[in-house]
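$ run holo --ligand "zinc ion" --emit tokens
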Amino acid sequence: MKFLALLALLFLSASAEKSRFDNYRVYSVTVENYQQLQAIQYLEEHSDAYNIFESPHLNADTEILVPPHKFSDFEELTENLGMKAKLIINNYQELIDEEIKPSRTPRVDAQYDWVSYKNLNEINAWLDQMAAQYSSVASVRNIGTTIQGRPIRLFKISKKSGNRGIFVEANIHAREWISSATATYLINELLTSTNPDIVDISTNIDWYIITNANPDGFVFSWDSNRNWRKTRAPVSALCFGVDPNRNFAYNWLTPDETGSLGASTSPCTDTYAGPSPLSENETRAIESVFADNAGKFDVFLSFHSYGHYLLTAWGHTRVPPADNSMLQTVGNAFRTALQAVNGINYAVGPTNTVLYAASGASPDHAYGHHGIKLAYTLEMRGNGNYGNYGFVLPPQFIIPNAQEVIAGLVGLVRSARTFGYLN
Ligand SMILES: [Zn+2]
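-- output --
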């Protein structure tokens, strides 16, 4: 009995252990030919040691997290392949430690702010407080429950009846903390700003916002592994997690013209699409918002990091969508308005051709299955002339990132209205 108790204790302390990334390096590699692409894709599928931040594609840079014991292997690999590799982060753990330092300092006036990242409890308490404070126009409700029993929450703002709607989903990828920080900043602006542009979009549009579409993964990224992307559903004897943004139903696990799935069937990989479409509680919760509000939304936005992209349909095929020219025009209005704030330059275009193949992602589902014409993925700040941080964007960039994204959204709304939407 004593032994069992001791074993249980050992088990508990082991599972509470935080992954550390001391002296891990992040390299940016440029994939210039098919052989190099295949090698990186092989690492993505089969290697436990390396972490490929986003799926590689031809003629583009991919960032790879390399543990110290793989430094010489990695050097040999890139040399053999003739692949350019640039060291961009020297010690990943240092960046992680810096990131949460301010929020761990106890403050006298425990006000919610965007000076530090907030954990799930802090975000949920703030959502409750805002819904209570602005109860005539705002509400928060549960739209599902994760496998670990956490609520998936939808925050709604409606200042007058008859409005068309914008649906925002954020932080579906656990490690992309800037996405939920931006979503809460957006809620705060919509409820408190006196700027006429913000008052316009908050008064004449209904907003449905999921700040944390993947609560289990988000908590795990705080408590256990800062680099976690997926859900926490047990998916095999060895592994946890489905990539919820590869689990949506529209053309789920469908290869594009080049044969690329843009998702994986291997449970241990970061882009595992799940056992079947909409198999996960998180994706079904989002699906219920679409279903319960059929015909309500003109715009759907999926907040991610990083890379400065505004991506449209399609992810699962290289064929441009029927509304390509409108999506591009409205997207360009977003880009121009965003760039005017801090000079950040977003690329706009179809996911598959601008970035990479991705089947089962939410914007394809919103556009293809639910007919929401203006569906976009936003890839926010991470690497730029302000520094190289990837997913671990220091908290001093939360506000500049959120301000430029909101300016971009004002531009997007204006352009959408010229096409007869959001009126
Ligand atoms: Zn993402």
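-- notes --
Residues 6-14 have pLDDT under 50 and may be disordered.
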